[in-house]
Amino acid sequence: MKNLIAALFLAALPGLAWGQDSVFKSYDSYERFVDTVIKTRDFKQLITRLGGRDEYTPEQLHSAHGRMQMIYPRDFTSGGVAAQQKLLNGFSKEVRIYWNDATLSYCYYYAFIHDYGDGIVVLKFDLNTNSDVIFGKL
């Protein structure tokens, strides 16, 4: 059921994370942001900051946020990087996993990142309940 809801969420928001408004001063500031908004289930802020600002109406963002809140009704208690692949010229891919210790519910996050020297740009990201989808991007 969770995978069906996640698929509906993703279908409702095509191209979720393409955008250049996702620039951070450092990897640490990027990591703090992602960890904070995912652990607190602030999916609206995640989408907006990582590229959805210009692509979705406030109503669409509110609806998507509500659907994800239904999938994950409790904040995540733990999380971190599960896999990271360094590429050339400052590019990398990473998978983060967040979970709630009480309910053992998991959320999988993927990012394609560029460290251009003066900061970090998240070029693409994905959030999913299905680990195969996320790990398939590495």
The arrangement of helices and strands along the chain is: HEHHHEEEEH
Low-confidence region ranges: 3-20
| Overall residue-averaged pLDDT value | 85
- DSSP, total strands: 5
User: Structural class of the secondary structure composition?
Assistant: alpha+beta
Overall outline = globular
Oligomeric status of the shown chains?
single chain
Determine the N-to-C terminus distance. Answer: 25 Å
Largest sheet report? 5 strands, antiparallel
> Any idea what the radius of gyration is?
14 Å
Estimated share of beta-strand residues = 25-35%
The amount of helix comes to 25-40%
Strand arrangement, major sheet: 1-5-4-3-2
**Discrete helix count:** 5
How does this structure look, described?
It is a single chain. With 138 residues, this protein is an alpha+beta fold. 38% of the residues lie in helices and 30% in strands. It contains five helices and five strands; from the N terminus they run H-E-H-H-H-E-E-E-E-H. A five-stranded antiparallel β-sheet has the order 1-5-4-3-2. Helix 1 packs antiparallel against helix 4 and helix 3 crosses helix 4. The longest helix has 14 residues. The chain is globular and about 40 Å long. The N terminus is likely disordered.
